[in-house]
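Weekly modeling sync, notes
Attendees: S.R. (lead), two postdocs, one rotation student

Agenda item 3: backlog of single-chain predictions. S.R. asked that every request posted to the team notebook include the full sequence so nobody has to chase files. The rotation student volunteered to paste the first one in as an example of the format we agreed on. Action items at the bottom.

Example entry:
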Amino acid sequence: MFKSGFITVVGRPNVGKSTLINHLMGAKLSIVSNKPQTTRKNLNAIYTDEEAQIIFVDTPGIHKAQNKLGEYMVHVARESLNQVDLVIFITTATAGGIHPGDAKIMEELKGLKTPVFLLVNKIDEFDQDKVAKTLEAYAKEVDFKEIIPISALKGKNTENILDLVKQHMPEGPMYYPEDMVADVHLRFMAAETIREKALKLLQQEIPHGIAVEITSMKEKENGNWDIEADIICEKDSHKGIIIGKGGQTLKKIGTWAREDMEVYLEGKVNLKTFVKVRKEWRDNDTLLKELGYKE
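Predicted structure, as returned to the notebook:
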């Protein structure tokens, strides 16, 4: 009996949703950053073995929206809860009680008929007493099917997650070819790769007003690629920071992104990046649609 189903992974920003999916998949598919709200669109990561096909939907975090982009992100995350076979809710240990950022998510989960797993992540960063109290507090609020303390980054207590997930999957078809690991367009993956490197390099110097648009992506006959991309920011002062002294920061972003791209594109990449200012683009419906953040 072959099983298949869709799983949404939810939690407040920066609790390790993308790190968990990347770990379970054994491949880097989703943007990972130490900044919150780095995932902006749903990404279907597809795990297939002889027993089942599990499609992980990595959603933007549920948080208090500050602009139209934020509103879109929260809408996508909430909608996904009602369209899947299983929900994985990720949090981290708290000082006591329910983390304020989890309160709204918990209310959303209480009304679901969909089974929910609770994963308390980053247990290596907290003392065991705090972890135990978190497990107890959360278990009182929602009837979780499974409660698992883990470290997604280090792979601790993660070895049985896929087997437990399969137990809750219905009998079903193979929705995607068995060798397919993600259902996103290569342009999207390329843009996310560049954005990830920019966030890592810039750290706290620039807020989340960064987007990346792939303006040209061509595969050559020899299997190599020519790619051009615009890094979009909101202020003229940000443009200078992204470029860096003598263009060194922009060059490093491009170098790091190219190294990752060459792995999943399986060819050499000639990458050209440019920085453009689009003031208040996160509140501009037209630009949000052009960048793929709104239908």
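Discussion: group reviewed the output briefly. The mean pLDDT is 80.
Action items: rotation student to repeat for the remaining queue; S.R. to check formatting next week.
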